[in-house]
Amino acid sequence: METVELVGKQFELDDDGHLKNQSDWNEEVAKEFAKLEGIEELNDRHWIVINFMRKVYQEKGDAPSIRRLTKESGVDTKELYALFPKGPAKKAAKIAGLPKPKGCI
Question: Is residue 47 part of a domain?
Answer without folding.
Answer: yes
